[in-house]
Amino acid sequence: MKDIKSNILIILVCIILGVILAIQLKSVENNIGSSTIPTQRAQQLAIDYKKIQDERDRIRNELDNLEAKLKQYEKGEAEKDVYLENLYKDIEKYRVLAGYESVQGPGIVIEINDPPMEVLYGEDSSAIVDNYEFLLQIISVINATEAEAISINEQRYTSFTEIVPAAKHLEINGVSFGPPFVIKAIGKPDDLENALRIKRGIIWRMENLLNLDIHIKQEQNIVIPKYRKIKEFRYAKPLEEISN
């Protein structure tokens, strides 16, 4: 009798263990199945994103070639007439001022990186992004030192440029960037660097208060790309002159 009870008990334990094992196997299968679909979807999205980027770059290159041909034609026509030539030069000047022309010249390159990981408060934080107003102060200083063109991570800085924090990144001209941030400025190199390195100035505060890793170097031929977004004026209109 005792053997029968023992056998029944063993059978019940085996059944319970079998049920538990079956439930665990089913759970694993469900997890594998559910994780496979997102992984495949993520891979497909990455492929589609790369195709879109390649197509965007192709269209940009084609647009640049067409603009170069148009500029060459406009310049050729302008040279035939003094008035048109002066008008062409004025248009070029204002396109450069607005940021719609790529430019090159001497200036400085500022590379700003986060401090070492052990200094940061958490892996998901970025000292630069959390204190991005320091980048705006750098731009203000070099603007005040008569910089003629500025870019951040190859994005032309203009009066229309937006710099907005988003998690560990900054949105610059609608493009997402993480550290390091590289600011380029065309102007008189010595004046630009001296303005930034002034005692207790912006660079000093960033290095000593935030422990940021900052490098400034002078270069004789910096290339700054043009501003690619098209700004449409919906509210601002030219002021009409009122004759007396």
Automatic annotation (TrEMBL):
| Coiled coil segments of this chain | 42-79
Q: Quote the Gene3D superfamilies the UniProt record gives.
A: Protein of unknown function DUF881
Pfam families for this protein = DUF881
What UniProt keywords are attached to this protein's entry?
Coiled coil
UniProt cross-references to PANTHER family, sorted A to Z = UPF0749 PROTEIN RV1825, UPF0749 PROTEIN YLXX
Q: What protein family does this chain belong to?
A: Belongs to the UPF0749 family.
UniProt name for this protein: Uncharacterized conserved protein YlxW, UPF0749 family
